[in-house]
From TrEMBL:
<feature type="domain" description="Adaptor protein ClpS core">
    <location>
        <begin position="59"/>
        <end position="125"/>
    </location>
</feature>
<dbReference type="Pfam" id="PF02617">
    <property type="entry name" value="ClpS"/>
</dbReference>
<dbReference type="InterPro" id="IPR022935">
    <property type="entry name" value="ClpS"/>
</dbReference>
<dbReference type="InterPro" id="IPR003769">
    <property type="entry name" value="ClpS_core"/>
</dbReference>
<dbReference type="InterPro" id="IPR014719">
    <property type="entry name" value="Ribosomal_bL12_C/ClpS-like"/>
</dbReference>
<dbReference type="GO" id="GO:0006508">
    <property type="term" value="P:proteolysis"/>
</dbReference>
<dbReference type="GO" id="GO:0030163">
    <property type="term" value="P:protein catabolic process"/>
</dbReference>
<protein>
    <submittedName>
        <fullName>ATP-dependent Clp protease adapter protein CLPS1, chloroplastic-like</fullName>
    </submittedName>
</protein>
């Protein structure tokens, strides 16, 4: 986690936000150019810009995606689903997660933002696996 982040420019939710996109200098030769008015990106109320989404993903508390054991799916299928659904999942990690869930009843698949955790959980469930999410309190 980053505490005391100097880049926390946007705190709280504002109905109408503007984000500085570009300032361009025009004019002949070196220097002496006139500054044009900056271009402001207006965001509609209730919609966040890409900048805000990226920032909230970095500062939001992390969540665990949990895989639960079931007696229906074959181990090979579980490994295939994990590799398809979770970005960057290797065969070795998928096998280890599958085995942990099989022997211990559950396993942590990934720790990520709440939005990503919800998406991964829904994809796992959509593939017939049992999955849940929970806050990963105390871990950064």
């Amino acid at each position: 986690c980053h505490t005391g982040d100097k880049l926390s420019l946007y705190k709280g939710h504002y109905a109408n936000r503007g984000i500085l996109v570009a300032i361009s200098a025009t004019g002949p030769g070196k220097g002496g150019g006139l500054l044009e008015r900056p271009t402001i990106e207006k965001t509609t109320p209730g919609r966040e810009s890409e900048f805000d989404l990226r920032k909230s993903r970095k500062t939001a508390p992390p969540f665990r995606v949990i895989l639960h054991n079931d007696n229906y799916n074959k181990r090979e299928y579980v490994v295939q689903v994990l590799m398809k659904v979770i970005p960057g999942m290797t065969l070795d990690n998928a096998v280890n997660i599958m085995q942990e869930a099989h022997y211990n009843g559950l396993a942590v698949v990934i720790i990520c933002s709440q939005a990503d955790a919800e998406e991964h959980c829904m994809q796992l469930r959509g593939s017939g696996l049992i999955s849940s999410i929970e806050p990963a309190s105390g871990e950064c």
